[in-house]
Design a protein that fits this description.
mainly alpha, phosphate transport, Phosphate transport system permease protein, transport, 2 strands, Phosphate_Transport_Permease, MetI-like fold, two-stranded antiparallel ribbon
């Protein structure tokens, strides 16, 4: 005989919790949210407006150009027919900026490490103040100093480079003249971007968790090993950001370059030969005397500089986003 066991009644399920009350939004939060959103939209509108204006005026100039805009080594938009190109300007802008970055970034990182980890407090504070003060010096002051000091005194350095490194062809000086060349411009730009890269890098290095440094010291690491294993990995993204800020200023610097450089549209791979040009210097030098079509040509060159700057900053953000080890949180 089979006995059927009747299971006891299951306990009733608890009633569902009452719906959570929505947190009341204060008027100040709504206003702040709207202002923040509007600021972001306004920035996009301004950038789009600048791009649209430059593109429209550049299209007018390029359509009337009888030469190739990217490969022509001449600038004569007032000629008959008009012929102009950006080959020399693009070369001069990129080369002078690269020279500035090669010189400025290592020196700036060294200064930032000295201020944040080596210098005593009574020396670090005044030195940091002086470095920050250099960023406030107007560009024309740097240009005057470069024309009256750097140009005369770099002649000896140019001769030395020509004597010992002339075989590289890059430092081969083929003509005699003052040091009004891309190499001098690169040195001047390096001095100008030095405070920007130093200040940002210093602030990033100061944010390194003290526990990381103390742990490395407790394990017997030297001061340099602490910096190499704890400080530099943590601040790598900050150094990249600081370098991009400095590169942005180097690409668009105008008055200092126009004061030092002896402009010409003769293409030369010898950095010590006088001549060359940059986008910003060419626009500043020829905008007032240009006719309507000539101004459109200058605006077309400005569009290239605008796109070049966006690509540089976009590449920097892409590098930081794709390489997780560049993030200070992963150090």
């Amino acid at each position: 005989m089979t006995t059927t066991v009747i299971p006891p009644d299951s306990p009733p399920s608890p009633p569902p919790p009452p719906p959570a009350k929505a947190t009341p939004t204060r008027p100040g939060d709504k206003i702040f949210r709207g202002l923040s959103r509007g600021s972001g939209i306004l920035l996009l509108v301004v950038m789009a407006s600048i791009a649209a204006f430059l593109t429209f005026r550049a299209a007018i100039a390029i359509s009337g150009n009888e030469g190739n805009f990217f490969t022509t080594f001449d600038w004569d938009p007032a000629g008959n027919p008009p012929v102009f190109g950006i080959a020399v300007l693009l070369y001069g802008t990129v080369v002078s900026s690269v020279i500035a970055m090669v010189i400025a970034v290592p020196v700036a990182v060294g200064i930032a490490l000295f201020i944040s980890h080596y210098a005593p407090r009574r020396l670090a504070s005044p030195l940091a103040y002086v470095v920050d003060l250099l960023a406030a010096v107007p560009s024309i002051i740097y240009g005057i100093w470069g024309a009256l000091f750097l140009v005369p005194y770099l002649g000896g350095l140019n001769s030395w480079l020509d004597s010992y490194l002339g075989w590289t062809l890059i430092f081969d000086k083929t003509e005699i003249g003052p040091a009004r060349n891309l190499f001098t411009v690169g040195i001047l730009l390096a001095i100008m971007i030095l405070p920007i890269v130093t200040s940002v890098s210093r602030e990033v290095f100061l944010q390194v968790p003290k526990m990381n440094e103390e742990a490395a010291l407790a394990l017997g690491a030297t001061r340099w090993e602490v910096i190499r294993l704890s400080v530099l990995p943590f601040g790598r993204s900050g150094v990249i950001s600081a370098s991009m800020l400095g590169l942005g200023r180097a690409l668009g610097e105008t008055m200092a370059v126009a004061t030092v450089l002896s402009p010409s549209f003769l293409f030369s791979g010898h950095l010590l030969d006088a001549g060359g040009g940059t986008f910003a210097q060419n626009i500043a030098a020829k905008f007032d005397e240009a006719n309507e079509f000539g101004r459109d040509a200058l605006i077309a060159s400005g569009l290239v500089l605008f796109v070049l700057t966006l690509l540089v900053n976009g590449a920097a953000r892409l590098i930081i986003a794709r390489r997780k080890e560049y993030s200070g949180a992963n150090a």
